[in-house]
Each structure stands twice: as C-alpha cells, then as structure tokens.
C-alpha cells in the first residue's frame, strides 16, 4: 500500500520545507533549491501540499499559505496587500525573491568562502547583482510583470521582428511539468509521488543555473572590478578626453563595471584588449554599447571599414596590421596594441 505524500516526504534530518502541490513554477523551485544550499536545510525533506494543517507542521513554507512572516519562516506572496520588493527595485517579489532577500547574503558568503562576513561589501555587491541578473526575472515572471510596459509598446507601434526562441528561466522549470495529456497513475499517492519527482528535477535544474551565475559573479565578475577600475583611472593616458579604455594583460568582463564607474556620464567609446595572455597576442578594439544589453554602439567603427579584412582593410583604413572589422561595426582587430590604438584614434576622428 502506497504511503501518503506527507508521510513519505517527511524523511531526512533537516527542517521540513513546505510548498504547494499541483502545477509548479520557477519561483518555488528556486526557493527550495536556495534553502537547500545552506547547511541548515541541506538535508531538508519537502512536502508539497495545500493542506493548512500539514503546512503548520513545516519549519519553512514557500509560495503557499497566504502569509509572509520572515520570523516564522513563512514566505508566500499571493495574499492581498503584499507589495514587498528588493531594495532599489520596483518588481514585487515572488517566493524566490523573498527567500533570496532573507537568505541570499548567507548563500553568497558561503560561496565566496574564506570566512567572509554576510555584511561584507563584496557580499552586498554580489547579492544585488544576482538579484538584478537572475532572481528578478523570476519574480517578474511569476507576478505577471512584462519586461516592457505593454501600453507604451502598443502606443509606439512596436512589434517583435522575430521570436526570441531559446529558454526563459520560467520555461526551464515549466517544461518539466507533465503535459495535459500525459497518463497519470490512478492511485493518488503514486500520482503525487510522480509529480514530486518532477518538481525535484525542476528545482535542481533551475538551481544549477542559479549556482552557475553565482559562481561566475563571485569567481570572475567580481575580481574583474579592480582591473577595470585601474584601467578606468588610466584612460586619459591613452586619450586626453578619456575615450579609450585599455585592458592590459587580458580581457575581463568590463561592461557592468565601466557603466558603474562612469556613473551615468558616458565617456569611454572604445575598449582595447589582447585576445589572450600570449606575448604576441592580437588585439581587439570593441565599441562600448549604449547600454549593457544594447546592440547599438556609442560610436561604431567607420562604415567604410566594416566587413573587410587584412590587407584590404589596411588599404581602406590607411593603417597597417588590421585583421578585421565586423560587418556590424561593433568590433575589430589588429595584430598589435599599437595598431589597435591607431584604429581607435582614427575612428574617433571619423
């Protein structure tokens, strides 16, 4: 005889986590995973139910129960009047945002390691960056918030040119739900077990993506900040007006840090960097976009250079050592730093 879902799931040594059963979403899937990243919840069992009496037995409840009370570990966002947001953002939180708001610093500090405190400056920076880059999209998706104001888009007469395709974060989880016409076990407990297994896979899947972003921002993005800051401080060594940023040694993730350092005063137009750490590495010249996600450059490379390569490009540009300029004009290359800088200087004057 099959066990009841609550009995079957109440195994393990950690505090019991509760969420709703039925169709699952990215926000509670991530919320459960984030909790389990912490030592307290690492071995926590999960019960998926809407039964208030069962939820009362849970140590922590996410996305169900109609209550937000961090002191009692209740993290629902569906109740009337709920309007909590992440500091500095307008998007109403989902269960993922609530868990990240209260537990995110501990998760980040644990990942950074070295005994860093939860209130350390780097933890605070990463906490905000991860919310902005990952969690907020889930909050918006679950609360029905569009990326752009639909009324403003309609008033401007804008239409998509093509389907974006690919997977949104919500789709990563949503597609792991059962299809409407999938056969389901006749036994209720067995059907719940199968549904719970799907949820666990979904929670792990979205959690893997979250951890990849966390590791990237902690191990690669954050260390790049000091390198970009140093290059920004030296930008007038290469151009009196500070329009060139030179990353010596190797390229690093620079866009976020540059925009922060500029503090709303756009000035850098081109970023120069070597393709690798080899002594004879070729150099790139990349245009700074108007914004991080924009394909529009502040100042594209000259139209006459675009789509040409090598000697043909040398002749057109009146320079030497040119390797290429992309047909869209946002990036080019040269055999040497001096050549890449000469391309930048000429492009600035065009």
TrEMBL record:
Family: Belongs to the MYG1 family.
Coiled coil: none
Pfam families cross-referenced by the UniProt entry: MYG1_exonuc
Assigned GO CC terms: cytoplasm; nucleus
Source organism: Drechmeria coniospora (Nematophagous fungus)
Annotated protein name in UniProt: MYG1 protein
Residue span of region Disordered: 1-20
């Amino acid at each position: 005889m099959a066990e009841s879902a609550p009995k079957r799931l109440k195994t393990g040594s950690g505090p019991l986590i509760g969420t709703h059963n039925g169709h699952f979403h990215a926000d509670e899937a991530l919320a459960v995973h984030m909790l389990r990243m912490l030592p307290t919840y690492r071995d926590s069992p999960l019960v998926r139910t809407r039964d208030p009496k069962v939820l009362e037995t849970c140590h922590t409840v996410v996305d169900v129960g109609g209550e937000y009370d961090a002191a009692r570990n209740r993290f629902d966002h569906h109740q009337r009047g709920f309007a909590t947001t992440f500091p500095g953002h307008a998007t109403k939180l989902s269960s993922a945002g609530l868990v990240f708001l209260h537990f995110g610093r501990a998760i980040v500090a644990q990942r950074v390691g070295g005994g860093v405190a939860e209130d350390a400056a780097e933890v605070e920076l990463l906490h905000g960056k991860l919310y902005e880059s990952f969690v907020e999209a889930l909050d918006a998706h679950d609360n029905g918030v569009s990326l752009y104001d639909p009324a403003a888009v309609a008033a401007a007469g804008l239409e998509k040119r093509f389907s974006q395709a690919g997977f949104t974060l919500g789709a990563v989880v949503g597609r792991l739900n059962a299809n409407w016409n999938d056969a389901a076990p006749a036994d209720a407990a067995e059907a719940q077990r199968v549904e719970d297994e799907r949820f666990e896979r979904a929670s792990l899947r979205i959690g893997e993506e979250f951890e990849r972003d966390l590791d990237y921002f902690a191990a690669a993005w954050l260390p790049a900040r000091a390198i970009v800051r140093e290059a920004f401080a030296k930008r007038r060594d290469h151009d009196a007006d500070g329009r060139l940023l030179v990353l010596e040694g190797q390229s690093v993730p620079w866009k976020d840090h540059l925009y922060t350092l500029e503090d709303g005063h756009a000035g850098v137009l081109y970023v120069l960097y070597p393709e690798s750490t080899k002594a004879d590495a070729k150099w790139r010249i990349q245009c700074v976009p108007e914004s991080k996600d924009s394909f529009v450059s502040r100042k594209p490379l000259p139209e006459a250079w675009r789509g040409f390569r090598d000697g043909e490009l040398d002749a057109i540009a009146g320079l030497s050592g040119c390797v290429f300029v992309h047909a869209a004009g946002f990036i080019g290359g040269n055999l040497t730093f001096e050549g890449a800088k000469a391309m930048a200087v000429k492009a600035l004057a065009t």
